[in-house]
Amino acid sequence: MNTTLSSRKKILAFVIVLALLAVILVLDMRRRRVEDQLTKLSVSTDQVDANSEENKETARRVTQRVGRLMVLPADIEPTVATIVNIDALRSRNAFYNSAENGDYLLVTPTRAILYSDKRNIILDVAPVQVGPARPTAGAQ
């Protein structure tokens, strides 16, 4: 009986060691996966930072071209975005119906402008409506 108890303890110890090794292996795999994701995110952030000069130049060029077609406020630098998923935009707002992927959206405090660089035309202009600020609970 003593040998049976001793062999059961050895088997139990062996199973516990195997379970611990399995847990360590799983945790290490998860750690490596998270490290890979972090590395990819870091690379993406570096790419965005590197492209910021290029993006600024594109925004300047697009703003200059739109400024030749219509009067833009001289004291305001519009926000410029490239349209990359026109189908999603069209499903949300008819303003984008005449736009294509690769066209530009310029936003100033008073209006939104759709511009096609390929065709060198303004596709649409719409007023920007900013809702009134909600008063805070303590404001009277």
Report on the biggest sheet. 4 strands, antiparallel
Shape: rod-shaped
Helix/strand class: alpha+beta
If helices are DSSP runs of H or I spanning 4 or more residues, what is the number of helices? 2
Number of domain units: 1
The SSE order reads HEHEEE
The share of residues in extended strands comes to 15-25%
Q: What is the mean predicted local confidence, pLDDT?
A: 85
The main sheet orders its strands as 1-2-3-4
The total of beta strands comes to 4
Task: Determine the fraction of residues in helical runs and give it as a percent range.
Answer: 40-55%
Regions with little confidence, pLDDT below 50 for 5+ residues = none
Q: First CA to last CA: what distance? A: 85 Å
Provide an overview of this structure:
The protein is of the alpha+beta class and 140 residues long. It has helices at residues 2-69, 86-92, and strands at 79-82, 104-107, 111-116, 121-127. A 4-stranded antiparallel sheet has the order 1-2-3-4, covered by helices on one side. A hairpin with a 3-residue loop joins strand 2 and strand 3. The protein is rod-shaped and about 95 Å long. The mean pLDDT is 85.
